[in-house]
Specification:
The complex is a heterodimer of chains A (111) and B (113). Chain A is mainly β and 111 residues long. Helices cover 0% and strands 59% of the residues of chain A. Chain A contains no helices and 11 strands. The radius of gyration of chain A is 13 Å and the shape is globular. Chain B is globular. Classes of the chains: A mainly beta (111), B mainly beta (113).
Chain lengths: 111, 113
């Protein structure tokens, strides 16, 4: 089955700096890669996603890049703010309806 | 607005009890999932269902079973609760189409004593 590895497990940045979280996947059939943000005590919610026919996608301060050849994708957050502090999960979908998640990255943005 | 609702936010059960966790979604999604969330281990798939009465094992099905008698409802059953099943349980749903996000419930924090 699919295996997703996510790094780093924890990340601490100063407000205004950029943050990058990386994921690798194993199944070349995967073609959908969502990123979820989970604030403390809340449910995971989608913040951005990318499909395999696209190399990069941007939404304001958040961007995701995908390298299908290398089987890795990354989340980039620019101009970080304290409210960006949360746990971020990447995921990869390799068959209809089923996603495999990374272990999560705890991002802390220091004011 | 998609709504996935789990029946309980917090549960405390005794070792050996049979435990039912209920999840209901209101968006007519075909696929429903149960995940377990533990610190440092991410979201691990226990079971998923892609249709009524259909189910497939995820990565950690041991000690769990599921039931999907109606499209909107997916139940997770702990046949005989054990302390190592103390965890946060998250239900999710998504349409059959592969390239769409999953919507999560608010989670059930289960403590087995």
């Amino acid at each position: 089955g699919e295996n997703v590895e996510q790094h780093p497990s924890t990340l601490s940045v100063q407000e205004g700096d950029s943050a990058v979280i990386k994921c690798t996947y194993s199944d070349s059939a995967s073609n959908y890669f969502p990123w979820y943000k989970q604030e403390l005590g809340k449910r995971p919610q989608l913040i951005i996603d990318i499909r395999s026919n696209v190399g990069e996608k941007k939404d304001q301060r958040i961007a995701v890049t995908l390298n299908k050849t290398a089987k890795h994708f990354s989340l980039h957050i620019t101009e970080t703010q304290p409210e960006d502090s949360a746990v971020y999960f990447c995921a990869a979908s390799s068959q209809a309806g089923k996603s495999t998640f990374g272990d999560g990255t705890t991002l802390t943005v220091k004011p | 607005d998609v709504k996935v609702t789990q029946s309980s936010r917090y549960l405390v059960k005794r070792t050996g009890e049979k435990v039912f966790l209920e999840c209901v979604q209101d968006m007519d999604h075909e696929n429903m999932f149960w995940y377990r969330q533990d610190p440092g281990l991410g979201l691990r798939l226990i079971y998923f269902s892609y249709d009524v009465k259909m189910k497939e094992k995820g990565d950690i099905p041991e000690g769990y079973s599921v039931s999907r008698e109606k499209k909107e409802r997916f139940s997770l059953i702990l046949e005989s609760a054990s302390t190592n099943q103390t965890s946060m349980y998250l239900c999710a749903s998504r349409p059959q189409t592969m390239n769409t996000e999953a919507f999560f419930g608010q989670g059930t924090r289960l403590t087995v004593v």
